[in-house]
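in:
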């Protein structure tokens, strides 16, 4: 415990005020992080729902195409349809938090004549399935970008919340207890001094003996 002096009392009060200001700043930062988290969550959830819906359609069309064109024919298209997406991973920043964002140099959706095979020998079922899978891939890259950002935001919200909890539940109560204890001690000492001074003046007026 600090020595019960007025200097230490003032220092403790200043420290408590500083901690209160820090807590207010942290709470404001947390609110900003939560707003950003909610704003990012909306398109993330929309992209995930879109992927789930499109995946069901793609699997259905692919199954129908395999029944018509045969699995061996579909497997033969894998080599000619392969391509480099030109993925780029860049570092971004939001509210001082750095995260990685995945992007591509061009759209993943291709026209039928851009897929590297003779589409005259394929069925609309296959083309529809491939289009759905390209849409899924494009959405998955969007999700990857959102997921990285969401993870960093969620981690920071948790970290700031822990700091706020420590300040509010441990640091501030201890500082308040010390301030109250020293203020009480100084108050009692002042009352005692005032009482002794009053007795001294009374004895001095009466010319009495100060000793009992």
């Amino acid at each position: 415990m600090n020595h019960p002096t007025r200097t230490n009392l003032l220092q403790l009060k200043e420290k408590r005020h500083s901690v209160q200001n820090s807590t207010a700043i942290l709470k404001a930062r947390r609110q900003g992080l939560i707003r950003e988290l909610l704003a990012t969550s909306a398109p993330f959830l929309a992209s995930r729902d879109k992927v789930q819906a499109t995946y069901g359609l793609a699997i259905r069309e692919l199954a129908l195409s395999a029944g018509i064109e045969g699995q061996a024919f579909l497997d033969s298209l894998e080599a000619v349809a392969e391509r480099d997406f030109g993925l780029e991973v860049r570092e971004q920043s939001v509210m001082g938090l750095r995260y990685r964002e995945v992007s591509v140099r061009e759209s993943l959706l291709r026209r039928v004549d851009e897929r590297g095979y003779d589409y005259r020998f394929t069925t609309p079922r296959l083309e529809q399935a491939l289009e759905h899978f390209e849409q899924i891939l494009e959405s998955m890259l969007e999700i990857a970008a959102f997921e990285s950002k969401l993870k960093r935001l969620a981690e920071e919200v948790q970290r700031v919340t822990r700091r706020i909890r420590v300040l509010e539940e441990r640091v501030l109560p201890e500082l308040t207890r010390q301030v109250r204890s020293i203020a009480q001690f100084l108050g009692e000492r002042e009352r005692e001094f005032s009482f002794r001074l009053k007795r001294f003046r009374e004895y001095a007026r009466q010319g009495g003996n100060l000793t009992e």
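note: The chain has one domain: 6-201.
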